[in-house]
């Protein structure tokens, strides 16, 4: 590869990968919590009579438990479309890294939340309306000047007509 660029930073694992790791860690800890020693202590009489059979039953139990949990979690992932949602969330987080303003968080008081969301919008809208109002007032002022100039011209023409009318008579 080219040696001129900055060293590549390994990408952080995606949420789907983190979720899978968490599930695997959970299963390992579950197996550790349900250790063979604990299992054997619970079924001490059977263990004393058949230690190999007890071990076999324990191994089957743990194996079935882990595969059952994995199947259930996979079913939840499939039904909830978690893979796509995790990827979408990763994409949103990546896009948000370049934002300068902090993300909005609810305060828990609906009135304040609505106010905090609406006030900036309403202030921006008020500013826009004031700008439009100034433009319209300026336009109306120019139209009023034009109307007054037109009236003055009409008055001049009426005087001219009157003067010519008197001169003609």
TrEMBL record:
It is found in: Chromosome, Centromere, Kinetochore; Nucleus. GO terms for biological process: cell division; chromosome segregation. It holds the Pfam family Nnf1. Its main location: nucleus. GO terms for cellular component: MIS12/MIND type complex; nucleus. Keywords: Cell cycle, Cell division, Centromere, Chromosome, Kinetochore, Mitosis, Nucleus. This is Polyamine-modulated factor 1. It comes from Aptenodytes patagonicus (King penguin). The lineage of its organism: Eukaryota, Metazoa, Chordata, Craniata, Vertebrata.
